[in-house]
Write a structure and sequence with these properties.
Elements lengths: L6 H11 L1 E2 L9 E7 L3 H5 L2 H12 L3 E7 L26 E5 L9 H8 L14 E5 L1 H5 L10 E3 L3 H19 L1 H11 L3 E2 L4 E6 L2 E7 L7 E2 L15 E2 L8 E5 L1 E2 L9 H5 L4 E2 L2 H12 L4 E5 L9 H10 L3 E4 L9 H9 L4 E7 L3 H6 L6 H13 L4 E8 L6 H20 L9 E8 L16 H15 L5 E5 L2 H12 L4 H10 L4 H11 L8 H4 L14 E2 L4 H12 L19
Parallel strand pairs: 2-3, 2-4, 4-5, 5-6, 10-21, 12-15, 15-16, 17-18, 18-19, 19-20
Antiparallel strand pairs: 1-11, 6-7, 8-9, 13-14
Helix pairs in contact: 6-7, 9-10, 10-11, 13-14, 14-15, 17-18
């Protein structure tokens, strides 16, 4: 049996392979360990993680190192998790900062605390322990399931907020201690959330109120950067081992104007903000000096001003542009041609729903003609692998809407088969189908996830309907995975106990949930109360103390419009103030 590489050997190998695109601080009095609640390849493929790494390290008087969940073949003893850069124990740093992108990464926190050698619960850690803070998209939406583990959460975009915190920490921590520091951060830095200053009260499955022990009303204002051009955001660490390690990522925008009613990112990052074409052009040129592919990052890239010119520029400079997502009705012939000219042979379209009715409900603003036209444009330029994304279990969905997925896929396949007798034709079509998961801060946050048995039957029926379509692959996500995501997305502070139970069960989350369903957990409602319940229209959510600059009444109106099958026009940030994000 081959011997396993020692963790320090793996770290040295990774460090030697990395290329930093910023000048790193080598020594400083304030030592920060930035940790990603998952493994190295996922962390280093995350543009937000890389950006925060640079922000921490460039702050005067601070040095930032990194630590990750060990690889599956690595054995790390309790209390011995060390940083990648120096091999210093994470427990010896002044600050341990978690970057958490996905709710399912919450399950990794107790294990990481065990590897660091710290109690998971903040109340059990002494004054000499590192300050534990967290940020990232999952924490922006609903930090409550892990609030008991965290001293401080920073809600929102970090470019201005993080240096403000570090300045306050450097000024006051050594003199005043942790409690006083957290009190000052809470009162002086917008976007800061100190869980110890909040006392949620529950009545069965309901969150009744959030008692706030600090000054003011306890509202946490999500921070955002109005001028993205002031903070260029591109890949800062090149690593071939990272997810997307073969490309340089360039952030083109934040937010999304389309308002799909299921999409948390479309509301969490409002209002839509785009970088200037000149800044993006410079970033593309610089990135092509390091990699042949530029990954253009944002919620939706086909509507970014000048995106076709960027794709053509990348080709002219010997590379290619790979946009993260393209809305079908925004794909132009010039954009399709420029992407294909770069050698891209796979394209993704996300109709999300099969029927026109269902797309009106979710506010997709996309017709079947738009979808067919985009597919023809991409395939006509040489794409031979088409990926299609759908959801099932959406609010108000019927059997006819599910059947519409198969009918739409069949129409796409037939259209491309007939029209591709010449040089270009689509070879493979992959259909990816996921169960709907209700997310905080969306119009569907009140709505339940469908029962697992119903979803399994839907997947089975859909596979049968699609089985007669040639050269088609259907991938489906497990309904159990959707159940876990919903539980963590809608969970309150009591769910931290469940996360700890899962850790004690060796990470077997489904066995833990099944035990909870059968036998209960003292003081917790049945898990289905979080997952399969329709929330009341005037209910207090666990995440209501966060201000995402969106009126809750606006989200409720959008939900009512969904049930009336009425669409909402894309955001016009110059004239519209309905959702209050601007």
């Amino acid at each position: 049996m081959p011997s396993r590489p020692h963790p320090q050997s793996r770290s040295r190998q990774r460090l030697a392979e990395e290329k930093l695109l910023f000048e790193k601080t080598r020594d400083a009095p304030l030592r920060v360990c930035l940790t990603y609640a998952n493994r190295y390849p996922l962390a280093m493929g995350n543009l937000g993680f890389q950006s925060v790494y640079e922000i921490f390290d460039r702050f005067p008087g601070a040095v930032c190192e990194r630590a990750f969940l060990p690889d599956e073949d690595e054995e790390v003893a309790s209390g011995s998790l060390a940083s990648l850069e120096s091999g210093r124990r994470v427990s010896d740093f002044d600050i341990v900062a978690f970057s958490i992108s996905f709710e399912t990464d919450y399950l990794n926190l107790p294990r990481m605390f065990d590897l660091i050698g710290l109690p998971a619960r903040a109340d059990d850690r002494g004054e000499s322990a590192p300050l534990v803070m967290a940020g990232g998209p999952a924490m922006f939406l609903n930090p409550e399931p892990v609030a008991e583990f965290i001293d401080l959460c920073l809600v929102g975009e970090a470019e201005e907020m993080l240096p403000e915190f570090l300045a306050l920490y450097s000024e006051s921590y050594q003199q005043s201690g942790r409690a006083d520091l957290l009190g000052r951060v809470d009162s002086e830095i917008a976007g800061s959330y100190v869980p110890s200053l909040y006392r949620p009260r529950f009545d069965g499955p309901l969150t009744v109120e959030h008692e706030y022990l600090g000054d003011g009303d306890g509202t946490v204002e999500r921070r955002l950067i109005w001028d993205l051009n002031a903070f260029p955001t591109t890949t800062r660490v090149l690593s071939s081992e990272a997810v997307f390690g073969d490309m340089v990522m360039v952030e083109a925008s934040r937010g999304c104007q389309w308002g799909c009613r299921f999409c948390a990112a479309g509301y969490m990052y409002r209002p839509i903000r785009t970088r200037s074409p000149d800044q993006l052009a410079d970033a593309v040129s610089a990135g092509l000096g390091e990699r042949d592919t530029i990954g253009l990052v944002g919620a939706e890239m086909a509507s970014v001003p000048g995106v076709a010119q960027l794709a053509a520029q990348a080709v002219a400079e010997g590379g290619r542009l790979s946009p993260s997502s393209l809305k079908a009705d925004c794909v132009t012939p010039s954009l399709a041609a420029a992407i294909a000219d770069g050698g891209t042979r796979s394209a993704t379209i996300a109709p999300e729903a099969g029927s026109e009715r269902m797309r009106r409900i979710i506010n997709k603003n996309l017709s079947e003609a738009d979808i067919l036209r985009a597919a023809e444009l991409m395939v006509g330029q040489g794409v031979d692998h088409l990926k299609l994304y759908f959801m099932v279990g959406l609010p108000e969905e019927t059997e006819a809407d599910v059947r519409g997925i198969a009918e739409l896929v069949d129409a796409i396949r037939a259209r491309l088969g007939e029209g591709a007798r010449g040089a270009h034709r689509v070879g493979r079509v992959t259909v990816s189908v996921n169960p709907f998961v209700p997310k905080p801060w969306t119009p569907f946050q009140w709505d339940p996830m469908r029962p697992l048995g119903e979803l399994r039957r839907t997947f089975k029926d859909l596979r049968k309907m699609c089985g007669r379509i040639p050269n088609l692959t259907v991938d489906t996500e497990s309904p159990r995975e959707g159940y876990l995501q919903t539980l963590l997305s809608r969970g309150d502070r009591r769910v931290s106990r469940v996360i700890e139970e899962i850790h004690r069960a060796g990470g077997d989350w489904w066995a833990t949930i099944r035990s909870w369903q059968r036998e209960g957990l003292d003081g917790l409602p049945h898990p289905d109360e979080y997952v399969h319940r329709t929330y009341g229209d005037d209910e207090v959510f666990a995440w209501d103390f966060i201000d995402h600059r969106i009126a809750k009444s606006y989200l409720w109106v959008e939900r009512r419009k969904a049930f009336a099958e009425r669409q909402t026009a894309p955001c016009d940030t110059a004239t519209c103030h309905s959702c209050e994000a601007c």
